[in-house]
Amino acid sequence: MSDDFIFTSESVTSGHPDKLCDQVSDAIVDQFLAQDPYSGIVAECAVASGVMFISAHYASRARLDIPEIARQVIRGIGYSKDVFDADACTVMTSFMDHTASAYRSLDLDSLDDADLDQITAKHQVTLFGFACDHTPNLMPVPIDLAHRMAQLLNSPGVGRQLPYLLPDSKAQVAIEFRNGTPHRIHSITLVASQRDDDIDLNRLRDDLMEHVVRPVLKAEKLPADEHTHIFVNPEGSLIGGGPSAHSGLTGRKTGIDTYGEYARHSGAALSGKDPLRIDRVGAYAARYAAKNLVAAGLARECEVQLSYAIGQARPASLRVRAFGTGQVDDEELTRRLQDAMDLRLGAVVRDFRLQHLPRERKDGFYRSLAVYGHMGREDADAPWERTDKADALK
Q: At which of 216, 242, 268 does a domain end?
């Protein structure tokens, strides 16, 4: 297999219908945990033109107006009323309250080592964490650059400068690799929705070049050149966008949520689940392990596989692959992880304070991850992005 190739990743903005559903689901998780950090909650959402459906199973002492939480998220995204009206849309719900049979007031900080062994996975899952030295946050450069393009495109500042834009947009970035290393930016594609067709494509391209593409590339060390292709709405104007144009579903954008398909991931949805769900917290633990190995200088590129079995607290298997970039062999990297990190479900949730972050953060925590990726999010102070185990791994 050649080490010279082009790899493409995409990111989408907050107004994309799939990401609307992720944000509603995680806003519900935030609100449950802010009132009661021991809540168990799984929330899923689907959206189409003029209608949203929310399903939630929970065990909690919190009492929420879930439809109003959804309408607040819709308002905050900023759709025009003809695209999706927060006040006029239909919100359908299906709730199951399991509090009487399943609620546990589980203070992980008070548990000793033996007690933590009793906090077990309720699902069988294999998860992957990845890190590489492409970028300062140790993420693959295609998805990192796509996220930065999408974030700026959907930022309040650009919204004030280009008021004709609507919040459903996407950014796609293709990177040319030479000898397995990022070499240059091959192409950038932006697709932006707008209120009407008063702004033609030439004006749109000029505006996005000035306010999005050039500012991001100015801060980017990887070069663009005269051969870099830049496309803006290559299939024509996108009027409205959002749920008026296409439907959405929680958990559909798992590649965007993780590594832009550059590395493996479990495929399970991350949004809409409380932190004791192993398919969510295990993905964060795997990223934490991989990032610390790369931050320690033990590998330039690293994948950590964690497999959890039902009824077990610890991973049933732990595997590290450094793809030939390791300073020591993969077995030694695995041994060092086992010695340096407690990857039991309860220990990870406790050490990351995942039950308490929504109460401690003014605007919640999990909803901030529902757009622009769960991994690499140093801007959100995500605890799995810390490199505090690097010295121990050395």
A: 242
